[in-house]
Design a protein that fits this description.
about 550 residues; alpha+beta; six-stranded antiparallel sheet; two-stranded antiparallel ribbon; 10 helices; 8 strands; about 60% helix; rod-shaped
């Protein structure tokens, strides 16, 4: 099967076909190029998508990724980032192994095609020239033959005419002989030209054209083969990344399997546990008795002598209700967080303090490492004075030592608060203790976060009064008998350090510098019950007053 034999007369069609083959190759190059651009764009979009949903540093969103489900999502984002990288590899390999390679091949193919068809046209022109020479020789031979025939006829006519002179007859005879000779010469030339043309034509159709067409056929077959190899490479480029893509997908599956719902539930407990115990049972209040109920040890006195029963708190209650206020998120946002995190429930406060202690210890270790490095450098300078002046490091060494001392003081301060909180937590079965005034330099908490906000068992903070008409507070121990109208005895006095606007039910307003009576000290919830006179009593934040207990009280003096 040879184009030179089968298609010896299809020069123009072969020229069109080979040009079409090059067009197909260029079309495939364009297709692969666009595919590479799509892969690169897809990889970029995947990376942007992964980056968009990555947790922002030092944000609340970053804290959410302690849950296994969020960690699995983060792993998915990271795997998708690697997945995008494989699409970039596809784009890069298709560009280098197919697009650029085929583009170079197309240029070479065009040059080879141009050379082959140039040789073909040159052979065509040569055979056409030979044909024209043959036609010219043939026409000359034909013309000379006709001239010789006419000259012979004229001679015979003159020879037969008796009126013609002998000289004219001789002249006609010589002319006929000349024409005869010219015809013979033309015949010989025509014969030689014909023989030469036949030889050229044979070489043209059996040697030159088959050779040229064979080269064109081989060129075209190489083009087809190259296109097939490129398509195979196209598939292999995709196939090569399949194992890594599979690993990325396996990583996502592994991340999904690592989700532990029980662990996440435990983290929710650790995140929001307040440390308080649930309220106890509500005691029965007997309204059939003609006597007026006596205020219990932990009750809130609203208005005396109005005939309404007082709200009563169990003095030894382990549980608490929080009847004063509703949630006030705005006040939490506007107010500054106290340094000791006293605005948080006990359990959350303990976690924050422990976290702060750990951070300070890391900073201390970092400073100590820096101090050791400076000390070693100073020793090197002492042994090799030419390297530097040892005295130049004294200032830096002193500064680092001072930083370490400051950090240690901070650690001691937060550890003291931590010990206090751990002592307060009911889960630790220790006696409830009062807040200590270990660090006098601590700034007072703001009204928004400490004065008007009160902890609730779920760790939230409320401001407004409950919508219920009467609020009853649970207690675990019930009073077996009612007191008379005798008010609770004062156990000491207190001095208001700051002005407090008691806007909630059960609280009382005080002015800075005012002296009042203490009738119930802080039970660990940050509130102290005081009395101004027989008709005015209520709760104020313990941190807003300086308490002086009498000798029979639990302590001689407490400053919060």
């Amino acid at each position: 099967m040879s184009w030179g034999i089968e298609l010896w007369d299809q020069f123009d069609n072969l020229e069109k076909h080979t040009q079409w083959g090059i067009d197909i190759l260029e079309k495939y190059i364009k297709f692969v190029k666009e595919r590479a651009e799509i892969e690169l764009s897809y990889a970029k979009q995947l990376r942007n998508l992964s980056k968009k949903y990555q947790p922002k540093k030092n944000s609340k969103e970053e804290e959410e990724y302690k849950y296994t489900s969020c960690q699995a999502f983060l792993s998915t984002l990271n795997e998708m980032n690697d997945y995008a990288g494989q699409h970039e590899v596809i784009s890069e390999n298709m560009t280098s192994q197919i697009t650029l390679d085929l583009a170079r091949y197309v240029q070479e193919l065009k040059q080879e095609r141009k050379s082959n068809f140039h040789d073909g046209r040159k052979a065509q022109q040569h055979i056409e020239t030979c044909w024209k020479q043959l036609e010219s020789s043939k026409r000359r031979f034909e013309r000379d033959c006709k001239e010789a025939d006419r000259a012979q006829q004229y001679f015979e006519k003159m020879d037969a005419d008796i009126n013609v002179t002998k000289a004219d007859v001789e002249k006609a005879r010589q002319q006929a002989q000349i024409r005869h000779q010219m015809a013979e010469d033309s015949k010989a030339d025509y014969s030689n030209t014909l023989q030469k043309f036949n030889q050229e034509q044979h070489e043209y159709y059996h040697t030159h054209i088959p050779g040229i067409f064979q080269k064109i056929q081989e060129m075209e077959e190489r083009r087809v083969l190259r296109l097939g190899e490129s398509m195979r490479t196209y598939a292999e480029v995709d196939r090569q990344v399949i194992p890594i893509v599979g690993k990325c997908l396996d990583g996502i599956v592994k991340a999904a399997e690592s989700i532990d719902q029980k662990s996440d539930s435990q983290l929710v407990i650790e995140a929001y546990k307040s440390g308080f115990e649930p309220p106890g049972d509500i005691e029965f209040e007997d309204y059939t008795q003609p006597m007026k109920r006596t205020v219990s040890e932990n009750s809130l006195s609203n208005s005396r002598g109005d005939g309404k029963p007082e709200l009563k708190f169990g003095g030894k209650s382990k549980g608490k209700l929080w009847p004063f206020i509703k949630k006030n998120k705005l006040s939490l946002k506007l107010g500054s967080t106290p340094e000791d995190f006293s605005n948080l429930p006990p359990e959350q406060r303990r976690k924050k303090l422990q976290q702060k202690v750990d951070e300070l210890n890391k900073e201390i270790q970092k400073e100590m490492d820096q101090r050791d490095a400076i000390t070693k450098m100073k020793d090197v300078y002492l042994k090799n004075p030419q390297m530097g002046d040892p005295a130049s490091l004294d200032h830096k060494l002193t500064e680092v030592s001072q930083n370490i001392d400051k950090l240690r003081l901070e650690v001691q301060k937060f550890e003291a608060w931590l010990a206090e909180v751990e002592g307060r937590l009911p889960a630790r079965n220790e006696q409830v203790r009062r807040q200590s005034g270990m660090y006098d330099g601590q700034p007072p908490p703001t009204v928004n976060t400490c004065a008007q906000d009160r902890e609730s068992p779920d760790g939230s903070y409320t401001e407004e009064q409950s919508q219920e008409s009467e609020v009853k507070v649970l207690a675990t121990d019930f009073d077996d008998e009612f007191d008379d109208e005798e008010p609770l005895p004062a156990i000491g006095t207190c001095k208001a350090l700051y002005t407090f606007e008691g806007q909630n039910e059960g609280t009382i307003s005080v002015a800075e510098g005012e002296t009042l009576y203490v009738i119930e000290e802080d039970k660990g919830d940050g509130w102290t019950r005081i009395r101004r006179n027989e008709d005015e009593e209520g709760y104020v934040p313990t941190s807003y007053v300086e308490v002086y207990l009498d000798k029979n009280a639990k302590g001689a003096k407490t400053y919060i």
